[in-house]
Amino acid sequence: MRAAMPMVDDPHRTSEVRHPVSMTLFAVQLLNGLQLGVLLFLIAAGLTLVFGVMDFVNLAHGVQYMVGAYLAVVFTTLVGNFFMALVLAMSAALLIGLLLEVTIYRRLYDRDHLDQVLATFGVILFLNELARVLFGPSPLTVPVPEALSGAVLLMNGLLYPVYRIALIVAGLAVAVGLWLLVTQTRIGMLVRAGATNARMVSALGVNIRQLFMIVFGFGVMLAGFAGFTAAPILSVEPGMGDSLLILAFVVIVIGGIGSIRGAFFAALIVGLVDTLGRTFMTDIFKLFLSPSAATDVGPAVASMLIYILMAAVLFFRPTGLFPAKGS
Questions:
Q1: Dihedral angle computed from the Cα positions of residues 3, 4, 8 and 10, in that order, rounded to the nearest 10 degrees
Q2: N or C: which end of the chain has fewer CB within 10 A?
Q3: What's the rounded Cα separation, in Å, for the pair 236 and 324?
Q4: pTM recorded for the entire structure
């Protein structure tokens, strides 16, 4: 089967091999950028709600992505059915996340951000080492479900894997469902109110601890879903969520803390800018620099693009592109 893109361990590093600029390459990297954007949204959506509603800095949120990926390995091996394994893995991810919330995170809500950063960083180290002990340091893989195997012809010369298209569609469907939940339901109303002023919501008689648990549970399941869906196309290994967590923080800063809409659009922007930049920046610099200089400068600038974008957004819109109302 002809592959549409190199299979790599890091979804935002799909452009390490140079290719001549063409419409086919641009279309492939555009889809790759959307795929990365969808994964970032699934992680950033929960992170921005936890930060916006609970004022809780959870560095260990990326570990939930890794947990979802390892649960994909465990349950697909046990039941042999990808979709049944998805249901079981999401249930297990929720239980693990709520266990962490009750035993560790709940004790940190009233502490300052430095304590939260240090404690959740400790959770990262513990869970990464636990994964290494239980599953070993070697990368693991999950087979692509047979129903989503193969590739489709999107344009002349472009075959793109069905599973990657399904991942993009699933992520967009989750985004729509989450938007409806946040904007059209009572729980969503409380979440939006909590993101604006959690103290006022508590003063009005809402059980703020219960609201925190609901928000945290949503965040855990979204991150776990991202890890599960990424498992068939990426290597499952300890620490796999750490780099994506950094990008997720960039997303919520650009989009606006506490804003689901901001997380969605910022995730797509970051995914596209990062993927297209890593692919084409060297070729762009070759237009006005020597090939050797462009080869040195292009990758360096490409790796900084999303941070330059974040700095620009903070300069012109310090609260983000789509801040939560009341920010």
A1: -160
A2: N
A3: 34
A4: 0.82
